[in-house]
Write a structure and sequence with these properties.
2 strands; 3 helices; 132 residues; two-stranded antiparallel ribbon; alpha+beta
């Protein structure tokens, strides 16, 4: 079947004479490969995991009231803002950087991106005869 993980094992046996003793050595080599659907799922989950981790870091920094004047904090807010922007304005409050607050729109973004990632990853296994 195309969905199965393929594994190949090869055992090589060699006989050698070391001094007055016969020595038998075995070399085992294994090779396995995952089907394309599994690789595609892993890529999707890696990308979604990166986005969710970035948004979670944003949420933590906002809860702690991190100073946007700091280069790292500004970098995180700038990059994660791209992914959080579609969810801004869902709730009636204006974020103030440097003040501790809970940004619900970022939490909603984390949930939505996780659901979208799950849906895309599941699309790769629609033809699968078993769960991967």
């Amino acid at each position: 079947m195309a969905d199965e993980i393929r594994e190949t094992r090869e055992v090589q046996t060699t006989d050698e004479q070391v001094g007055g003793t016969n020595v038998q050595r075995q070399t085992v080599s294994a090779e396995s490969s995952a089907p394309g659907s599994v690789v595609a799922q892993r890529v999707v989950w890696y990308i979604v995991g990166f986005i969710v981790a970035l948004l979670a870091l944003r949420l933590i920094l906002q809860l702690l009231g991190a100073n946007q004047g700091n280069a790292f904090v500004d970098f995180v807010y700038g990059i994660s803002g791209i992914f959080a922007a579609p969810f801004f304005g869902m709730f009636s409050y204006t974020p103030t950087y440097g003040v501790s607050y809970f940004e619900v729109s970022t939490l909603v973004a984390i949930l939505i991106y996780s659901l979208i990632g799950w849906g895309i990853a599941k699309l790769f296994t629609l033809n699968s005869t078993h769960t991967v």
